[in-house]
Design goal:
The complex is a heterodimer. By secondary structure, chain A is mainly alpha-helical. Chain A contains 7 helices and 2 strands, in the order H-H-H-H-E-H-H-H-E. Chain A has helices at 7-23, 36-67, 73-100, 105-110, 125-139, 148-151, 158-163; strands at residues 112-116, 165-169. The longest helix of chain A is centred in the first third of the chain and has 32 residues, at 36-67. The model of chain A has no long low-confidence stretch (mean pLDDT 86). Chain B has 14 helices and no strands. Chain B has helices at residues 2-9, 11-60, 62-73, 75-86, 89-99, 102-112, 115-125, 128-138, 141-151, 153-164, 166-177, 179-190, 192-203, 205-244. The longest helix of chain B has 50 residues, at 11-60.
């Protein structure tokens, strides 16, 4: 069966194989699973960011609505719609960040990354959604769902067990010159 | 016979007799000698007067000038001058000039008298300084001199010496303590241009970039501190939880295939 990969990719693969034969396996960076406090601080930063944007948007919306002469019965509908929008925004924030780079802004500050437990790749979107659901479920019983982080060898909580993820340390990204 | 015998008998008496005769002759001839001397002097004076008169006559005549001109134009004169200049005359003259301080005496005389002033007045009247300056500027002497001074070590040495001197320190101290500086600062702060300049500098890309870098560096430092603290807190909290639940301490997982690739593809 013909190899359909681009020539550059094939050449790169061959070079990798030769380099491995000559020099042996490259030293892998030591995986450092992240604990509850670090992840909690990252989550606090994310929550602050999410709420800051939400408050700014809500204030703008309220300003606009106040300028219009709307009936009072519409307030409940607007509040409900705003709540749903807030939940949607929060979910989109986490799911997008975990599925794209594996890092939310809070994770970036704390230099941690959410990856798949089996191969270290970033999570697929459905796994990210599952992880978000797991996060809420873990928080519901008085945060007992996070207790396994303290006891598990790989520091995995309920949300990690559901989504098959781990939280590891991220190497420092390149600085601007 | 008797006198001859006496002379033979007493030579001392003979010598005294001879000296007496000489004295008498000298006294007799003295007026004549004086007259001769006076005559000689008068003759010498007359000869000198005649010689001087002749010299004056010769010098004042047109022939003398013509003779001098011809002599000066003649090859003989040129040869003589060349010979003199090629020979040791120049060195001898130079040595004598130095030995007898001729230049110093001349300079002293010039400085004491009005000659120098008059010379300077004439130089000034002839517009010599301006012409000299024009010539120097046209020839690029100023540029060459400036380049030489700037490239050479002399300027640096001079500046170093000036800065290290006690006079410079005193001068700086006096400037700082003087009211002039306070007044200058006050006027500077009151001027509108200063604040325009400050605004321009503050808004320049270089400054904003530097401030951004500095702020990011500071934020990085703070974040680094928080990260280190949180890692320590992780370990501490985990140990406490495991101890409370009577669980064994956490073992480091050496290297797992599932987590080798920590960066996304």
């Amino acid at each position: 069966m013909a190899d359909r990969r681009p020539a550059a990719t094939r050449a790169g693969g061959r070079a990798q194989v030769v380099a491995t034969r000559v020099h042996g396996e490259a030293a892998q960076p030591r995986v450092e699973y992240q604990g509850l406090v670090t992840r909690g601080i990252a989550f606090v930063i994310d929550a602050a960011l999410v709420n800051l944007v939400a408050v700014a948007v809500a204030a703008s919306a309220a300003l606009i609505v106040s300028a219009l002469s709307l009936p009072d019965s519409l307030d409940t509908v607007l509040i409900a719609a705003g709540s749903w929008l807030f939940l949607l925004w929060s979910a989109a924030y986490f799911v997008t960040c975990w599925s794209s780079t594996g890092q939310t802004p809070g994770n970036r500050v704390m230099r941690i990354r959410v990856v798949r437990a089996e191969d270290g790749a970033v999570l697929r979107p459905w796994r990210s959604v599952l992880r978000l659901v797991g996060l809420m479920l873990a928080a519901l019983p008085l945060f007992l769902g996070f207790l396994p982080i303290l006891l598990n060898e790989r520091r995995r909580g309920l949300q990690d067990a559901l989504a098959g993820s781990v939280v590891v340390g991220a190497p420092e990204s390149g600085r601007r010159s | 016979m008797a006198s001859q015998r006496d002379e033979r008998d007493s030579p001392r008496a003979g010598r005294s007799r001879r000296s007496g005769l000489t004295a008498i002759a000298g006294a007799a001839l003295r007026p004549a000698v004086g007259t001769l001397r006076l005559g000689g002097r008068a003759a010498a004076r007359a000869v000198d007067g005649v010689a001087l008169a002749s010299a004056d006559l010769v010098l004042s005549s047109r022939v003398a000038g013509e003779v001098v001109d011809r002599l000066a134009d003649s090859p003989l004169f040129e040869r003589a001058v060349s010979r003199a200049l090629a020979g040791p005359l120049v060195e001898a003259v130079s040595r004598d000039i130095v030995r007898y301080a001729v230049l110093e005496r001349v300079a002293e005389t010039l400085l004491e008298g009005d000659a120098l002033d008059s010379v300077l007045d004439r130089v000034d009247a002839a517009d010599v300084p301006r012409r000299v300056v024009d010539r120097l500027l046209a020839d690029g002497i100023v540029e060459q001199t400036t380049a030489r001074v700037l490239e050479g070590p002399e300027l640096e040495r001079a500046v170093e010496t000036a800065l290290e001197s006690a006079a410079a320190e005193r001068l700086v101290g006096r400037v700082i303590e003087s009211k002039l500086l306070d007044e200058a600062v006050r006027r500077l702060l009151e001027s509108e241009e200063l604040w325009v300049l400050v605004e321009e500098i503050a808004q320049s890309p270089a400054v904003t970039e530097a401030i951004t870098q500095q702020s990011m560096g500071f934020a990085d430092q703070v974040a680094g501190g928080v990260r280190a603290g949180s890692r320590r807190a992780d370990v501490w909290l985990e140990r406490a939880a495991r101890r409370a639940l009577r669980r064994s301490a956490r073992e480091e997982i050496p290297d797992e295939p599932a987590t080798r690739r920590v960066t996304p593809p």
